[in-house]
Amino acid sequence: KNDLLIIAKSYMGAKGSDAQGMRSHYNRHCMPLVRPERRYEIQRDDNWCAMFTSVVASLAGYVESEFPFEVSVGEQVRIARLRGTFISDWRKALAGDLVIFDWKSKGWPTHVGFVDSIVGNVMHTIEGNKDGKVGDRWVNLPNSQVMGFIRT
User: Fold this and answer.
1) Contact status, residue 121 vs residue 59, Cβ threshold 8 Å
2) N or C end of the chain: which has fewer CB within 10 A?
3) What global pTM score does this model have?
């Protein structure tokens, strides 16, 4: 499972318009791991941050009981809370965990990425659908837009 971040980084710069392979992988390999009533075939114009995390986890060998496979960040959080893998305290986050963003700081998860590292109070992330591509970001912690983390 150590390949999670290596796989995520291998997609750096991939654009949504070039993401057909990721969408195909999600629809073929990840969607069957989603609860039947939540199964949705991701489309070209959909937001794809959660799909990106699911594809990376699938390629790293994670199975349904180990990862919240989904195209919805809100549903990933719901699953993590049910499983007891949601973490609110940024000081407990680890490389490879999912970071959940709430851009409006209103209590609703709006974006997800991977924690690449946390050094001191600065987190580096790798995210799908960041400005329309796979990119990274530096975030000072604590931060009102970081809702929490999901242990992977």
Assistant:
1) no
2) N
3) 0.96
